[in-house]
Design a protein that fits this description.
alpha/beta, 7-stranded mixed sheet, 10 strands
């Protein structure tokens, strides 16, 4: 019987060598044999059918969902975005999301596909700390959130306001002066504030301090333990980075699907709310991102970018049509639900831009 190496099989089947090794270790390739530290495979072996299908962490089939409400969250656009998922043939085995935010697309992909490597990042240090704590310290986090829920929910409105403001002040103190020893508490406070603040906003002032007032929820779910533990399980093999999107360049290659969801370009001159961090993302930054997308395109990655459609307010505004002129641009309908002005919520067009 003639044999081929894992590298030769990878080239023959159009998948990564690492994926071939995984298939061998899972006994998915008949008569594959480990010789020394390498796999040898019958030359006549056929590429196994990709068995990576939808699997949820919860035994009852509950879908893993974002643990935070996040401005610009993509839950409502998932049906459109998932049309771009390129994982079915097994050649795209990695996923990168350099502006992870609330992670709606991330958790949809983690729920549906068993990928070799996943990379997420964001420049919001408190957000990334919360992802890491959920992954690494879920028991302690759940204990803190249970306590906050049991204390906060039974209170009347006035006592809730006092409690909320104390927690907000503590969060800001940790944000400015904290160290690694209090990261679990900071993550718990991040979730608490998100579940109890006005409209689920995460907004900071020029000093970087969280400044959103309390919301008016009757019975907020502060500790969604089942989902948090499911999320923790899904994050175990995810690389979590606090940093600029450019740091993802070393991870991204021809086997990677990348979803970029940057801070949206304001639709109007007055709609300039982008303060989810102390940093703003202006037109110059949007142009720099487009150049980075072109660089990753040349690497062979499959890429999707989302943003607001400036034609909502000015049909002559071709900003994104110009900077992404070499890519495919699709306009889809969406609803803006997080806005301090209720009249500004409603149906608008958003852009989905892809290089394939």
């Amino acid at each position: 019987m003639e044999f081929m190496s894992a590298r030769e099989a990878a080239e023959k089947w159009g998948i990564s060598q690492r994926r071939v090794a995984v298939l061998c270790s899972e006994n998915r390739i008949d008569n594959a044999t480990m010789v020394g530290n390498m796999w040898i495979i019958p030359a006549t072996a056929e590429k196994p059918i990709d068995a990576r299908i939808i699997r949820y962490s919860q035994s009852d089939g509950q879908k893993v969902k974002p643990f935070l409400k996040w401005a610009g969250g993509k839950g409502q656009l998932l049906a459109e975005i998932e049309k771009y998922y390129p994982f079915r043939d097994g050649t795209i085995t990695k996923y990168a999301e350099p502006f992870v935010g609330g992670g709606a697309v991330l958790f949809d992909i983690l729920s549906k596909y068993d990928l070799e490597e996943v990379y997420i990042s964001d420049i919001n240090a408190e957000l990334i700390n919360t992802y890491r704590i959920i992954r690494d310290d879920i028991d302690e986090l759940v204990t803190m959130l249970r306590t906050m829920q049991s204390e906060f929910v039974p209170m009347d409105t006035e006592h809730r306001k006092v409690y909320y403001m104390a927690k907000r002040e503590r969060f800001n103190d940790l944000k400015v002066n904290g160290n690694e020893s209090v990261n679990i508490e900071k993550a718990a406070l991040m979730i608490f504030l998100n579940k109890t603040c006005f409209n689920g906003l995460f907004r900071v002032n020029k000093k970087g301090l969280f400044n959103v007032p309390m919301g008016s929820y009757k019975n907020p779910m502060i500790c969604d333990e089942d989902n948090l533990r499911a999320v923790s399980d899904k994050l175990q093999r995810v690389k979590i980075v606090c940093g600029d999107y450019r740091e993802s360049a070393d991870f991204i290659d021809e086997n990677t699907f990348v979803y970029f969801d940057p801070p949206y370009r304001p639709i109007t001159d007055t709609a300039s709310f982008t303060a989810y961090t102390e940093n703003l993302f202006n037109d110059e930054e949007q142009i720099e991102l487009a150049k980075f997308v072109d660089d990753m395109h040349r690497k062979g990655a499959k890429i999707v970018i989302s943003n607001s459609d400036p034609k909502n307010s000015n049909t002559e505004d071709d900003f994104f049509d110009n900077i992404y002129s070499s890519h495919s641009i699709k306009r889809v309908e969406a609803s803006r639900m997080i806005n301090c002005n209720s009249e500004a919520r409603g149906k608008i067009k958003e852009l989905l831009i892809s290089n394939f």
